[in-house]
Amino acid sequence: MLDRRSILKMAAGGAMLTLIPSAQLQAKTPGKRLAMVFDVRRCTGCLSCTVSCAMENQTDAGRCRTRVNQAAIETQTGLSTLAVPNQCNQCDNPACVYVCPVEATYKRKEDGIVVINHDECIHCQLCVDACPYGARRKDETLNSPPEKCNFCIHRVSAGLLPACVETCIGEARNFGDLNDPNSKVSQLVRDNKAYAMLADAGTKPNIFYIGLPEHPKDKQILSLNFLEWQR
Predict the structure, then answer these.
(1) Which pTM does this prediction carry?
(2) At CB < 8 A and 24+ separation, what contacts does 94-102 make?
(3) Domain named 4Fe-4S ferredoxin-type: which ranges (predicted)?
(4) pLDDT tens across 142-162, in order?
(5) What are the per-10-residue average pLDDT scores of the chain (231 residues)?
(6) Cα–Cα distance between 111 and 132 in angstroms, integer?
(7) How remote is the C-alpha of 51 from its chain's centroid?
């Protein structure tokens, strides 16, 4: 597992998104394997996902659970900009779980969602530093647990889509069970080249990106330099 300093160096070097082998995408897990697939070709950068998430989950200002970063990307025709959503990657090998001293952060066996038990959390914020994606937003007063995406677990449990997916005007966000070969997310990663962020960190993320142009020099690694990388 890479530490955060090493990952930020990797980010500065541009090696951010890695093409994921189809065998890894199709690997079955016990229960469901809930995942999100972003089609960056359809993302307008409107931030409706960030706003709807904040409203749905009543998050404090500055502690949003999902963000859209602007990136400079090197393509075969030159540099261009790209809107890249980023949030908790619901990893199969989550660093945040391993550092929690009281096991308040854990991964649900039935669907793979990484959640925080707010009643057990002692607000130590160790998970904030451990997350390589900067996906956890700490409470500066240390009076409450960190904020992070949990796929709107209350909505999913009721058979609804996460708020960000339901309100995405470009239909760039797709959500479902990768263990179901007939789900839309399974079809998308099967029919497109799917990339994951910081795949070399060993976290085995379940957030994937499609519609990305190939790097002109390396078709397995996409060079992506963030114009905005918030912590």
Answers:
(1) 0.87
(2) 94/203, 95/1, 95/130, 95/131, 95/132, 95/201, 95/203, 96/127, 96/130, 96/131, 96/136, 98/130, 99/126, 99/127, 99/129, 99/130, 100/126, 100/127, 101/126
(3) 34-63, 79-110, 112-141
(4) 888 999 999 999 999 999 999
(5) 44 63 83 95 92 94 86 72 88 95 96 95 94 89 90 96 96 96 95 89 92 68 51 34
(6) 22
(7) 17
